[in-house]
Amino acid sequence: MSGHAPAGVYLKSTDNRPDDHCWWYDPEDNSVTHQTRDHLFKHCYKRKDQQAAMWARVKKATKKGS
Predict the structure, then answer these.
(1) How far apart are CA 57 and CA 65, in angstroms?
(2) Which pLDDT value is given to residue 1?
(3) Domain limits at 52?
(4) Helix residue spans in 1-66 (DSSP H)
(5) Phi-psi category of 3—alpha, beta or left, where left has phi over 0 and alpha has psi -120 to 50?
(6) What is the mean pLDDT of each run of 10 residues along the chain (66 residues)?
(7) How far is 37 from 5, CA to CA, in rounded Å?
(8) Is residue 2 part of a domain?
């Protein structure tokens, strides 16, 4: 294991994907989003429910906000 998350940016750098775009981005939308860990944990529209649950657990565990 390399310690890298299998996100688009890493997969492109290892020649496992042709680009680093988020594979859930809307192709109708002209703004292409690079799939980074930050994008997946905070911004990806497809993961909004999971993000909310994760950050709620982080807040509870650390007594801090995200």
Answers:
(1) 10
(2) 47
(3) 8-62
(4) 8-13, 37-38, 48-62
(5) left
(6) 76 91 76 86 90 94 75
(7) 7
(8) no
